[in-house]
């Protein structure tokens, strides 16, 4: 498993991923609408490249047995953080689900956040998103329960990974 920035030539795959309501339904309100045109995917890739700061951003998830990216993993400043915590998120193409790719990618992103000096990484999932809740656990995150007001439209299931001495 590896991560790299999305590239313009990946736009058709990203469009195929983000045109699907079954994927975008779990996104925050501002980004929940499925894409309708290939150009939108290219614009996302360009925006992600502009906002990438070396350790926060959106990466393509690459599986060793697949030619195209299988999905995305992202790290960003947690909107309601008190001490600079970051949040990890992920989403996969439906044709890549069920192989452990999301958990492996999330764990890689968490390790990257620790290497960059962050002490906590959060994941917020919709309480009904059982796949993402299971992924957070498989990525080594601890379930802190349901919280209100941290997710874009109501309650969230909050997970945390905490840096240890072994994490550098």
UniProtKB/TrEMBL annotation:
InterPro entries: Acyl_CoA_acyltransferase, GNAT_dom, N-acetyltransferase. It comes from the Bacteria. SUPFAM superfamilies: Acyl-CoA N-acyltransferases (Nat) (SSF55729). GO terms for molecular function: acyltransferase activity, transferring groups other than amino-acyl groups. Residues 1-166 form the N-acetyltransferase domain. PANTHER family: GNAT FAMILY, PUTATIVE (AFU_ORTHOLOGUE AFUA_3G00765)-RELATED-RELATED, N-ACETYLTRANSFERASE DOMAIN-CONTAINING PROTEIN. This is RimJ/RimL family protein N-acetyltransferase.
